[in-house]
Amino acid sequence: MKRLLLAIIAVGFALSASAKIELPHILGSHMVLQQNAMVNLWGKATPNAKVNITVSWAPLRRVQTTADKDGNWATKIDTPAATFDPQTIKISDGETLTLSDILIGDVWITSGQSNMEMLVKGFGRQPVENSLNYILAGGKEANRIRMFTVKRDRSFEEKSDCEGEWSRASSESVANMSATSYFFALNLVNAIDIPIGIVTANWGGTRIESWMPQAALEDILTPEQIAQKKEASSVKPTELYCAMIAPIRDFTAKGFLWYQGCSNLSDNDHYDTMMARMVQQWRKDWGDSKNEMPFYYVMITPYSYGDSNAISYPLFVENQARALEKIPNSGMAATTDLGEETCIHPAKKFEVGQRLAALALAKTYGQLGFEADAPQMAAYSIKDGKAVITISNSENGLSPWYGEAVEGFEIAGADKVFHKAQATISAQKEVTVWSDEVAQPVAVRYSFRNFAPGNLKNMFGIPVIPFRTDEWTDVK
Q: Is the overall model pTM greater than 0.85, yes or no?
């Protein structure tokens, strides 16, 4: 009799346990849900059970779905306009699970390598400028900024869940948040005054192919290229996509931020093609069949990259700039002025986040009054021993102001020997460049070495990206 009673009790506990709703880590209390959207919810429940969902913003409405034979279920709920009022979601298949302190706003997915991963508190001996100010003020953003950091993981099989949890902004949590992502969010909430949720998945020193599925790589690379990339890094192609992107791709979002490239510096002949294919894949994964969700990325910063006078860096930046033409609804945040010759992790992360936010505010949110796109060379001409360069995305003019010298230019004649050049702003969108050592100039370059940061910017402080008027490879 005693054994029978124990058996009945055991069965009761088992049934009780099986009735408990299980959710992926990305769905949790303190999260931000995308506003004005049909957002995805999914998880595990008792096999074949009815799953009922109620939400605080529509308390009289109930969404019901049914778990399959393995207990898997998925459904959608519609969200209202953004609100700072904390909301709740209750999910039940007989036992209720309650998610609380949920905000409704805009969700951005951010990813990349170490410069996106770098925390507000910095890395060892590598600080983030003014970090203490933002950390001490973090608590003021508790009801405005939330972040979910995907824990590092690797897999060759697509995973359905990842480790991580939603964090409300506070001094402690802000210190451990992705600096670029946090500063992007901070600039957004200050401009549009809605909650911002960040889901960030990063791994320092990784290559873009690690963040793409095998099928996407096969679309654009030869078998020989794929084989080479398998040997290029300890983190292999597809591993991070399977372990860190696949588990979050059902979390409804507004757009994407990307800060990666240093590890692919040698791929400056096809990185743009890989990035365009990755973006297309991610957009599709997030339900965007039209390939138009906003995608904003960061130009890698000047650094020695082994030889400050070499040009591997600007050649790669050319590739990043070409990607703008291949990726619809995209923008690149310029960093020509933010690099550090001896540190690949520049301390000026606020400016990076701000420039990404400016792109989003101008292109996605429709704010006016400033120019966010990176200025580039639009045209040039050579006459009477001087070159005249026309700069795009500088309708309001160029700086430095008041006749201060423009730095960062080199000029060469037919001998392909480049000399440091003098330059001055000669018209609203024009710079005139010359050198007394080059009587008949043929080519001009701006900031076109691994570390040769210039000071040419538009009137809003957005720096001109490195450029050249030639296609020479055998230069001095």
A: yes
